[in-house]
Design a protein that fits this description.
heterodimer; A: mainly alpha; B: mainly alpha; 0% strand
Amino acid sequence: MSTDTITSRPAGLAARERIYKYVLFACACASILVTLGIVGLLARDAITFFTAVNPIAFLTGTEFNLSRGEFGVLPLLTGTLLVTIISAAVALPIGVAAAVYLSEYASDRMRSVLKPALEILAGIPTVVYGIFALVYVTPFLRVFGLPLNTFNVLSASLMVGIMIIPMVSSLSEDAMSAVPDSLREAAYGVGATKYEVSTGVVIPAAVSGIFSSFILALSRAIGETMIVAVAMGSRSRLFDFSEPLANLWRGNQPMTAAMVQINGADSVSGVGFQSMFAIGLTLFVITFLMNLASNRIAARYREEYN
Amino acid sequence: MATPGREIDWAGETGQVSRLRGVAFELACLAAVGVALVSVLVLLLYVATDALRPFSADPGWHLVFFLTLVVPTLGTAVYFYRLEEPAGEVAYATTGLPVVGILFAAALAVVLDIELVTALELFALLVATLVAAGIVVVHGRYRPGAALERLGVVVAAPVVTVFGVPPVEVIRALNGVLSLIGLPAVSGARLPSLRELILLSPVAPLEWILVIVSVTIPVAGALGLFVARRRENRRDGLAFVGGAVAATLLAPVAGPLLGIGSTGWVLAVTFCLLPPAVYVEGVVRRNEGVHGLAFPLVLVGGILLGAVLVRQFGFAPPDSWLDWQFLTSAHSRTPEDAGFYPPIVGSIMLLIVVAASAFPVGVGAAIYLEEYAPASGLSGKFVELVEINIGNLAGVPSVVYGLLGLALFIRAINMPSGAVIVGGLAVGLLILPIVIISAQEALRAVPDSHREAAYGMGATRWQVTRSVVLPQAIPGILTGTILAVGRAIGETAPLLMIGAAASVRLAPNSFSDQLPAMPRQIFAWSSNLEPEIRHGVLAAGVVTLLVVLLIMNGTAILIRNKYQREL
């Protein structure tokens, strides 16, 4: 009996092992089911929507107005684009510069303080950033004489930018830390200064990682909902080329905020409600593709140095 | 030198290197970090000022607390930071542990208060679980070889003791399906579980005694086991449990005296006193950073001294928006009476659903991907696809998960719109990829040599996972989960999509009730233009939410720091 348990495995053990394996496998498949669920369920209502509204009218229409039954996605797309561009202009340079400081200049002690601090910034809920934009940033910017409405594109986009800085900086720093020290040492060996090493060696070597962080951050800005829902108002406007700057002072409505508004509206026609799923599917496809691209690019730099 | 006309682009050529450009670049990079941090810090200060209104207090009040609280704590903090780092960590932990404990105790007190779970139900559940565990242990003792049979026992024992045969939930689900296809409901005879039998008992002890039995003793028991193992002395562990129970037995005297009630005292002792006691014992025994223990004393002493002095001199405290009334009442049209209680309760319940749904599935998936998944062949390709998919899902906007929740839970399977359970499941799906990724990282950090040693002794894959890998990875998994759940509390967009109501007057007391949630209420307040709401109630709500998040993230970082040192 006792020798048995040592030399051979108890009966039924193999079967039990198999059951555990299947249960764990099922857990892993859950993520696939989530993706399929998103695509399937969103597509179902989106298809019903597109039978009622011509897809070409949806993609090229210049007005989005629920009560009048206008479902042109262009104003929402330009709204999203506007937010993304302004927030990128804020977040990308600041994020990369912060990453350079953390990876190349900061002492260990400094880094042990700054990194958790940036992490905590990333943990602030986006609805709080939205309230910052609405209650504090807009009045602050008005002090400088900017003709801002209560709800405006500028302060919301600035806040989206600040929100995505930690993402850019932490991912870019990962990429810079992955650059082997031998490259830095070789540069120092031929007499380069720290500045030259940072800008001439580390950043070019980490460029694919930095680029991948950019894409991820932009995808985050595109999908950001609460900041724009709180601080940008609820009127969609097509970009006005006659007065480019005026677009920033007024409110606007990107895709995500439009979805929130449709869902919260009291009386929405069936088609209007389904348009929410069409917009959601568009958003999902855009962000999913961007994330995929970002992962591809990031995988390349990992291969190079590992 | 041979070609003087041509400049060679080499820093050494001129014999002098310009430092200006380098310094300017370094400063610019530092400024970037500063802009990111300072801008948000300033905004946080603004919102805190609006919520707390410190300037409405007497200057004397500020002076007193500055002298009794700020100067001594800041002084000790600077001393620890510059001269005695281990003591600083001890100070951080001994201050943080009771705070986290208060949060736990308050959450459980709320759960008992709204009768989501009564003390008797907790007790019955505990007894039934213990009996089930006992059956499994006894079976293992008598039939150690029957592994498959034991799996059956592991499933069957809790069904008999906790759920009953057949479980009510199964009958309810069956009847739901039957009613959908138009058949009459079944209601056959069933064998009630041990848990249900206890609930039927006509007499029950007082609530606080039940809480001691079903909360304090398990917590103290676990900590006592830890103490006994660390000191290699069973007596010490038992003494710890005895002391803990003795402290809780003071409840009928101490509870009313402090105004928190007997149950409140029991919970406070269990969560705010016991874990710090174990930590302090460890610090004293290791004799490492003992000076840090002074920090909480300085802090509490400063608050008490300041309170006494302020009352003595009659200085008025600030008239904050964020006060006891705010935390304990519901939303009201008049800003002075508006409160945050239902959203706080709703967020706690949301947290329970999120953790219960995302944690098991997420950790299970991570274990499969790290420990089981084949690396090659067709199934290897599939696993690769799963991994890429998880990475992408982590980047899908939260509003899309809200749409998924709406389409799946409300429109496809007819769950009530805006219910706690729907919100929890939608947010659970949202954090699932984050839980999987962080659990994978924790599992990957366990050295392969440990696994190989276990395999070398003939352990099966599951045995290796359960007894070797998981115990080492648990702190990392917990850290990741707490951070993910912290994100879940702040998520608003999915709640909007599943139709969570703007303001709910009554705190929910079941999972199918309407969900009020902290961020949802904040969003509702944000559209109100009244200055008392915008610069008062709204700010108080934001600060409450941020404090909860800060405590959760602080806990996660604390666990991670301790764990990284050990690995």
